[in-house]
Amino acid sequence: MSKDPIIIAGAGIGGLSAAACLLRAGQEVVVLEQAPVLGEVGAGIQISANAARVYDHLGLLADIEDRGAVPESYRFRMFDDGEVLQSIPLGEGYRARHGVPYVTIHRADLHAALVQAVRALDRDAVRLGVTVTGFEQDNSGVTIHLEGGETLRGAALIGADGIRSAVRRQILGDTPAEYTGDTAWRVIVPAEALPEEYRTRDVDIWVGPRRHAVTYPLRGGNLVNFVGCVEHEGLEDESWTTPRPWQEMHDDFQGWHPMIAALIDRADKGACYRWALRLRPPVSRWTEGRGTLMGDAAHPTLPYMAQGAAMAVEDAAVLARALEAEGGDIAPALALFEQARLPRTTRIVTESSANRHLFHEPDRDRLRASFAARDMNAERSAWLFSYDPLSAPLDSVA
């Protein structure tokens, strides 16, 4: 291992997962976070088996399961009458098949578990209120430039700083994320505020004309998460922390299933958030010498397979393995990491984007036929859920 620390820009879910994997492997790590306090906002997140295996390896999975919920099934349903178009078993059957559970959890709860894990490994690993503006590299390491003029020396720089990544901008140049034409609403509703029949124990994807919605339980079923993706013309420039008028969300889902109506009716009208979904096309590289990218900085993914965060978690495990495989030799290790991750992340970015057209199909007969022609359970189990980032060959296409 290098005597200098690996520098990670960003203390989100991806950056902290990478820090935990690297620290557990014996690597010194410094995580630089521009926020003055550690925390996470947002709504729910889904942890499928491919990511859960990493958290099991880190000793975090039991805690994550306790903080989250274990849904019973993953269903695709018609937007208005609730017809089930296809169902993927989850719950104990999923655990038996894949060795780990499928968990839904609030992003803040997952983030808190990761913060605790990283600080248990190194209480001083995370520095707050620090913004990375650029870096230089030579044969022995990297010099990180911070806002305010400070510099920091490290063995490598990992850009886990999200879709607006400053590290990406230096490695790949200016590659603006383009508005996809979709915006996403998010609200969380206490289960006790809903009729008993809508206190869901399932992940439901409600598909319909030019929009779809996702609902699932959080915190042991005490909360219900709602995300609604709606096609909107024109360029949107909204943050997912900026509230929008409740009436707009209500109007976007007028005529939908009574469960969707109940969730919207009982939402906190001052805490309805909508943000623009942006995307960059997959790239053929994201590494330059001792600098590389991971998560949304490398391969931003639309939320139509619930795999954006899972990809960052996979990245974290594969990065640690690549460093170990190359004996801590940084540049070859980062090249190996990129080689191992490019094919799989490109496939997931592409298939996630394609799901948008499936979920927003306006013709009911074509929608039924599309789901009838696909066995989502077999497809996802065969290549998505079965992938193990802790053991998959680093030179294979996963």
Mean pLDDT, all residues: 94
Distance between the termini: 27 Å
CATH architecture name of the domain at 6-176 and 285-385: 3-Layer(bba) Sandwich
Largest sheet, spatial ordering of strands: 5-4-13-14-15-12-16
Instruction: Please work out how many helical segments DSSP would assign.
Output: 12
What is the fold-level CATH name, i.e. the topology of the domain at 6-176 and 285-385?
A: FAD/NAD(P)-binding domain
Q: Beta fraction of the residues?
A: 15-25%
CATH superfamily of the domain at 6-176 and 285-385: FAD/NAD(P)-binding domain
Q: Low-confidence segments, ≥5 residues, pLDDT <50?
A: none
Order of helices and strands: EHEEHHEEHEHEEEEEHEEEEHHEEHHHH
Radius of gyration: 21 Å
Backbone structural class: alpha/beta
Task: Summarize the biggest pleated sheet.
Answer: 7 strands, mixed
Shape: globular
Overall CATH class of the domain at 6-176 and 285-385: Alpha Beta
Count of distinct strands: 17
Overall helicity: 25-40%
Walkthrough of the structure:
- With 398 residues, this protein is of the alpha/beta class.
- It has a domain at 6-176 and 285-385: FAD/NAD(P)-binding domain (3-Layer(bba) Sandwich).
- The chain is built from 12 helices and 17 strands.
- The chain has helices at residues 13-24, 49-57, 61-67, 91-98, 107-121, 166-172, 246-252, 258-265, 308-325, 330-359, 364-372, 376-385, and strands spanning 6-9, 29-33, 44-47, 73-78, 84-89, 103-106, 126-128, 132-138, 141-146, 151-154, 156-159, 178-190, 203-208, 211-218, 223-231, 273-279, 291-293.
- The strands form 4 sheets. It has a 7-stranded mixed sheet with strand order 5-4-13-14-15-12-16, with helices on both faces. A 5-stranded parallel sheet has the order 7-2-1-11-17, with helices on both faces.
- The radius of gyration is 21 Å and the shape is globular.
- The mean pLDDT is 94.
